[in-house]
Amino acid sequence: MTYDFDLFVIGAGSGGVRAARFAAGYGARVAVAESRYLGGTCVNVGCVPKKLLVYGAHFAEDFEQAQGFGWSLGDARFDWPTLIANKNREIARLNGIYRNLLLGSGVTLLEGHARLLDEHRVEFGGQRYSARHILLATGGWPHIPDIPGHEHAIGSNEAFFLEQLPKRVLVVGGGYIAVEFASIFHGLGAETSLLYRRELFLRGFDGAVRTHLRDELSKRGLDLQFNCDIERIDKQADGSLLAILQDGRRLATDCVFYATGRRPMLDNLGLENTGVELDERGFIKVDEQFQTSAPSILAIGDVIGRVQLTPVALAEGMAVARRLFKPEEYRPVDYQSIPTAVFSLPNIGTVGLSEEQAKAAGHQVKVYESRFRPMKLTLTDCQERTLMKLVVDADSDRVLGCHMVGPEAGEIIQGLAVALKAGATKRIFDETIGVHPTAAEEFVTMRAPITP
Ligand SMILES: Cc1cc2nc3c(=O)[nH]c(=O)nc-3n(C[C@H](O)[C@H](O)[C@H](O)COP(=O)(O)OP(=O)(O)OC[C@H]3O[C@@H](n4cnc5c(N)ncnc54)[C@H](O)[C@@H]3O)c2cc1C
After folding, report:
1. 230, 376, 387, 408: which has the fewest Cβ within 10 Å?
2. Of 58, 133, 143, 436, which is the active-site residue?
3. Is the beta carbon of 95 within 6 A of some atom in ligand 1?
């Protein structure tokens, strides 16, 4: 049978674009359908605009600290509409780059919604296209719980386009997106509270990292409220909101921002016309080579709900393109030791196992920790402290995890991820010469374990 395309990709986000470009580069005839925005979540309503807002929020502390270095600044004022307009301009530029990348690699770009008709056919704009393989890379969507008044709340998609910075914000959630947005709103001057229903945010991160960040955020004046949740949101006559908590408290605010998880984007995708199955969490079920229960249909990225990060979607996209069109270069995606950052203020950078995970996996661990006031702050009134931590296997001396809370932690952890991937031991860390004077050199100068 002949097909219109060798590969039809639904979704031009991180994973879809990577798979499409690589497949086309290997000589496949490829189409990509995109219903909203080129570059997907990461470029439009995820990593990129989020990081730009974090940079914006960081200036507040820069201005304050500058005074210790002899600078006197006038009355620094912040204008949210300017930041959002500039951010939008940059995103539009990136959308253009994605378009050129796809077209330049010979991919047929179809802008609009695509829907599966069966396991080899897709409907797009009233047309039907056939393909030998179909790749679902449709990503995810913010989930806002269905409580009374949920229509007054926003998710991350809307937060990037607010017309004004709210004066008061309640951020609900305990994942990295909640923590980052709480830092953004607080840094930009909004009176911000973070509400989370469990005892501490960032489940899965190292315990010392979680408590250290909690303490640092509290020191900055960010109001953290754990073990609580919103029961109802009422709109007031003056347009403000009243959040009624399950414990009966009533919190007045101007914005309720939910970051309580993301669901897979399967809306009107036509899965019912195929044998594609979902897992128990509702994400698309795939095998280790990203094949769904329908042999001609594959899925990658957030829609399979494994590790919802852009570099992981990219790696999965590349693996699919190779598996289908360059099998001799196929390598499975390595989900071990994925480095990651939380761009809270201060940042978290982490790679490998937390102390808790290492112990649960049966390792006898040695833990090294350093807590210090960064040199840059010594001329300022800021009492922020940095945390660095190494989790080491006591038997093999192998470094199992590196964790940091402090300025530029995301930048610093990337290099350490290479060391962990290469299987570095603590001895190798010790024998590595530091870069002086930096904060990062602490990672190679921690001599005595804090555990026996
Ligand atoms: C606020 C926020 C901050 C984040 N920050 C980071 C970060 O700092 N670092 C990091 O690594 N990750 C971050 N992420 C996660 C990252 O954005 C995702 O993991 C990544 O975008 C997933 O890529 P994907 O290709 O699976 O899906 P997406 O990038 O979501 O792309 C899916 C695309 O499919 C399109 N689509 C869906 N259905 C259809 C259809 N039927 N027809 C046509 N097109 C369709 C969508 O419009 C979308 O463009 C963040 C996410 C959010 C929400």
Report:
1. 376
2. 436
3. no
Active site residue 152: no
Q: Give the Å distance between the CA of 350 and the centre of ligand 1.
A: 22
Q: Whose CA is nearest to atom 3 of ligand 1?
A: 46
Domain 5-142+263-329 and domain 150-260, same fold? Reply is: yes
Topology adopted by domain 340-444:
Enolase-like; domain 1 (3.30.390)
Which neighbouring-strand residues pair with 445?
A: none
Q: Is 449 in the pocket of ligand 1 (CB under 6 A)?
A: no
Q: Which CATH number fits domain 150-260: 3.40.50.970, 1.10.530.10, 3.50.50.60, 3.90.180.10?
A: 3.50.50.60
For the whole model, what pTM was predicted? Answer: 0.97
CA nearest 344: which of 193, 179, 194, 221? 179
Residue closest via CA to ligand 1's atom 31 equals 13
- Ligand 1 lined by 190 (C-beta under 6 Å): no
Q: Where in 226-364 does DSSP place strands (E)?
A: 230-235, 241-245, 250-253, 255-258, 262-264, 297-299, 340-342, 348-352
Domain ranges across the chain? 5-142+263-329, 150-260, 340-444
Please name the CATH architecture into which domain 5-142+263-329 falls: 3-Layer(bba) Sandwich (3.50)
Q: Is 387 exposed, middle or buried (0-12, 13-18, 19+ CB in 10 A)?
A: buried
| Token pair in block for residue 380 | 């300022």
Q: Cα(32) to centroid of ligand 1, in Å?
A: 15
Hey, what are 171's tokens? Answer: 């951020």
Q: Which of 126, 177, 167 lies closest to 308, judged by CA?
A: 177
What are the distances in angstroms from CA 7 to CA 92, 296, 333? 27, 10, 20
Exposure b/e, 226-243, CB count within 10 A at least 16 = b: eebbbeebeeeeeeebbb
Residues facing 243 on adjacent strands: 233, 251
From the CA of 142, give the closest atom in ligand 1.
Answer: 53
What distance in Å separates the CA atoms of residue 449 and residue 429, rounded to the nearest whole number? 14
Tell me the pLDDT tens digit for each residue of 222-265.
999 999 999 999 999 999 999 999 999 999 999 999 999 999 99
pLDDT in tens, 403-452: 999 999 999 999 999 999 999 999 999 999 999 999 999 999 999 999 76
* Ligand 1 mean position, distance from CA 40 (Å): 5
Distance 376 CA to ligand 1 centre (A): 36
* Closest residue by CA, ligand 1 atom 51: 46
- Per-residue model confidence (pLDDT) at position 220: 95
DSSP-based three-state secondary structure for 354: coil
